[in-house]
Amino acid sequence: MKPTLLILAAGMGSRYGSLKQVDQLGPSGETIMDYSVYDAMRAGFGKVVFVIRKSLENDFKEIFNRYKGKIEVDYVFQEIDNVPAGISIPADRVKPWGTGHAILVARKAINTPFAVINADDFYDADAFKVMAEHLSKPGLEDIDKYAMVGYPIQNTLSEFGHVSRGVCELNANQCLTSVIERLKIQRMNNEIVYFDENDKPVALNGDEMVSMNFWGFPVSIFDKLEKKFNEFIVANSSQLKSEFYIPMVVNELVQEKTAHAKVLKTTAQWFGITYKEDKPIAIENFKKLTEKGLYPQKLW
Known about the structure:
Elements: E1 4-8, H1 32-43, E2 47-52, H2 57-63, E3 72-77, H3 99-104, E4 114-118, E5 121-122, H4 125-135, H5 140-143, E6 145-152, E7 163-170, E8 176-188, E9 191-195, E10 201-204, E11 209-217, H6 221-236, H7 246-255, E12 260-264, E13 271-272, H8 279-291
Parallel strand pairs: 1-2, 1-4, 2-3, 6-12
Antiparallel strand pairs: 4-11, 5-13, 6-11, 7-8, 7-11, 8-9, 9-10
């Protein structure tokens, strides 16, 4: 059975200033998601599921109707009120509940091992190849064997502002021993730093492996996600900005020794758009990839 690709496209894009998920960046107006789906199909994925907000449904279906007849497509909705019964949500909360919650809402649409990616990140073809190979291995359910495509943190920053990343520690077998979401990562005084809970800068060496939310899971993750989210929402339902992150969940499961997470080796080169100033760089990158013959002038 072919694996499924889950694309997280319900984010607000507040730092970018517009709906970057559908921004046209390729030579023929392609979005970053177009390249991800194209690479996933080449790697052997058989279905793509978009996590979006209900208000975006018509726009998404109009744009991505171009996949019809090429790969199976489904849509699920991440809404703020999609929480367990009895939970009260602040009336002025506008931020979604995070990437872990986005995976959870896709439960009914996925029945194969699956990969998770962000809509606004370009992960490169080899990343999909190694992930598809991992997800096609037998026994994933029995051992709760997760996977992550990692990238060196120095290659994942924006020149135009801070970013958040899941910073990883690995053992000798290239399995995660921890993954901690670090906030406000940026270059400062010729160093790469993040800001801790006291808003003080902490230096990084630049070679740390980070999660760019390219994860691979068996469907057994959904039961664990549901339990963890129920605990999270009880503790955080009154907060306006708290989020339920994928790295947070994986880290807890790894610490509890109820799951393993392999960091996959890849030659892939990542880039993405966090701020509007990143857009011209992304456009130029897609132009160069096309000129090298790695992608056709028109994907669809």
